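Z., the sequence and structure:
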Amino acid sequence: MTQSNCSRREFLGLSAAAAGASFAAKPMVSLPRNLMLAPEAVPPSERVRFGMIGVGMQGNWLLSESIKLPGVECAAACDLYDGRHTLAREIVRADLPVTRRYQALLDDKSIDCIVAAVPDHWHKQVVVDAVSAGKDIYCEKPMSHTAADGVAMVDAAKKTGHIVQIGSQRVSSQICAKAKELIAQGTLGDLMLVEGWLGRNDPTGAWQYPPPPDLSPRNLDWDTWQGTVPKRAFDPNIFARWRCWKEYGTGVAGDLLVHLISGMMFMLGINEPPKQASAVGGIRRWKDGRNMPDVHAVVYYFGELPVYMRLNLGTEMPEAYRIQGSKGVLDVTGSTLSLTPQTGKDSYPSYYTGSYPRAMREAYLEKWHLENDPKPGQAAAMPETMSFSGPDFDDVRPHLWTFFDAVRTRKPVVEDAVFGHNAALACHMANESYFRKSAVSWDEASKTIR
């Protein structure tokens, strides 16, 4: 994933302010106490040793956070750019083993698991190779580069039985967990429509990252980095800004939409791909040679539920959801949650009765007021609004902790290969619909987008 204020705006503890006792909040569960321990407090025999594949923008963050966790240590790091070997040693220790060949980490029997943050077009190969070599793996989102890649990754995970956790951290957000609880309790009634949006308005937010000044074919294995993509001449901008091109990345869908989709799936208890997607968009602002849209809006059917998601790299919009139900509206952001109940009943007589003759209208009004007006001494009902707010907090740390704890205990993870595949399929369908200029659907029998 890409670091941004939006993607890092999560929190550990929430203070609730409820307007009515009927919506009083339960105490929020905080990070496990053993996560607060110093890394050296865990005996060596209980430590998890991981290999880091990819030490780029996201990878250096995951590496830095992972080694702060108790009982977790980095055994080696891999990157195709030698400058990131230096970076990995700066983060971990001066004598950390480094390599350009990730297979060396898979062959190392002392390494328990892998954390991978590589371009999307390398996800399938790294995950399949890792689980086939007997390693559990944390792979950055989106899980796959194509629908076919995702199918192969799920098959490999199921065949080997090894843990695959995908790095869309919304499933580890406490605000999303609280929203999930409220929705499961039926607080919103029947779900009507879900909306989500996220926008940026700066060059870095649109992936115009500055390539390392020393980057060259001498310190970067450019041919290997390109993988199975048709080979092209060395281009530092493609290396740094690969999300802009569909040959290597999945665009705004795989970078931002996947967060909205995975968070929504978690909150609503969904673990299946959408039935249908219809997208519009275009390269509206960043005319820099990219072939992926910088504005992308998608309408889905998840089952029978309509879902509308919109992404924009030319206008700043904080990441947010609006989940609409027959009993109210739930607004969710990275650090706030607001529930506004609705009765779904008339709050005043129907104006349609203005078309009645006078006697009929007066009879209706008398009956309506008799049935609906507060009785003498009785206060009128007032809808209660509940809200939560909390400080900014990175949900990446608890998300990583879930993975390493699963490696140690073999407990299942929420965002496994199946969940990650279903969320990624929503992104692939958004891209397919955009490029085909038509609605697309997921065909489970053939496991293809049609």
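DSSP finds twelve helices and 17 strands in the chain. Residues 228 and 277 are 28 Å apart (CA to CA).

Let me know what you think.
H.
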